[in-house]
Amino acid sequence: MGMSEFARAAVRQAGAREWRGLALALFLLLTITNIVLVLYAPARGETPGTIFALAGAARGIGLLSISVAMLRVAAASPRGRWSFDAGFFLYFALSLLALALTFAIRLAAGTPGDGALSFVGPVAELLLLAPLAPWMVAAAVDKPLARDPRPWLRDFGAWLPPLLLLSVPVALLGAAHAMSSLHLLAIGGDDGAFWPLAVADGLVSTTIVLATLALRLTAWRTLRPAAVPGYPAADPYRKET
């Protein structure tokens, strides 16, 4: 799949009708939980309160569940959209691995407030995690369980260059978003700009998630005919009419 074809497929998927209801749920989840996290953020050195901890847990579990549901809907997966099955937990484990790598990279690169260093972490994450993208999608959607990564770590020339190139703007947007979130945290609920900024923050967060999932799905679709014998070579994406 060429660069332009890869990009078109990802854009079509990000705006697909099948994702619209789930995208709205994702926007509400990310916006509401972010507002709660900002308003109940503990002061430096204090222990997080119950409301803050519950909002963080709801955000993490909700984001994971909606992401898996979106992947399964788009891939016409035989797995249930909301099933907490082996595929869900394998995707969860790979996401934890990605989170651990992200945390380690950001510790090495500096905090999001460190100017230019705030862009180092997302780009480094991209370079490390992009090769795992097809396997992460396969973990969530394929049946039987895609526990073996080897079929998904191959033919990199066919999908990794467009995935990396198209993911760079998403990574940079994520870095800019992290800095805007710090501003949101700084003004708290005491400024008239808080609520519009909170909604904008939710929109940006949702856009980042949709773009990331769409790019991963496109990489998975490109590689799947080679990874799964007998799978049709045609792109299974259903264009809207």
> How would you describe the oligomerization state of the chains in this entry?
single chain
**Number of structurally distinct domains:** 1
**Class based on secondary structure composition and strand pairing:** mainly alpha
Please indicate the percent range of residues in DSSP E strands (runs of 2 or more): under 5%
**Tally of helical runs:** 8
Shape: globular
SSE topology:
Blueprint lengths: L2 H12 L5 H20 L10 H25 L11 H24 L10 H10 L3 H9 L14 H32 L6 H34 L14
Helix pairs in contact: 1-8, 2-3, 2-8, 4-5, 4-6, 5-7, 6-8, 7-8
Task: Provide tags for this entry.
single chain; 241 residues; mainly alpha; 69% helix; 0% strand; globular; disordered C terminus
Would you mind describing this structure in some detail?
The chain has 241 residues and is mainly alpha-helical. The protein has one domain (3-227). It is built from 8 helices and no strands. The protein has helices at residues 3-14, 20-39, 50-74, 86-109, 120-129, 133-141, 156-187, 194-227. Helix 4 (86-109) runs antiparallel to helix 5, helix 4 packs antiparallel against helix 6 (133-141) and helix 5 runs antiparallel to helix 7.
Briefly, what is this?
This protein is mainly alpha-helical. The protein has 8 helices and no strands. Residues 231-241 have low confidence and may be disordered.
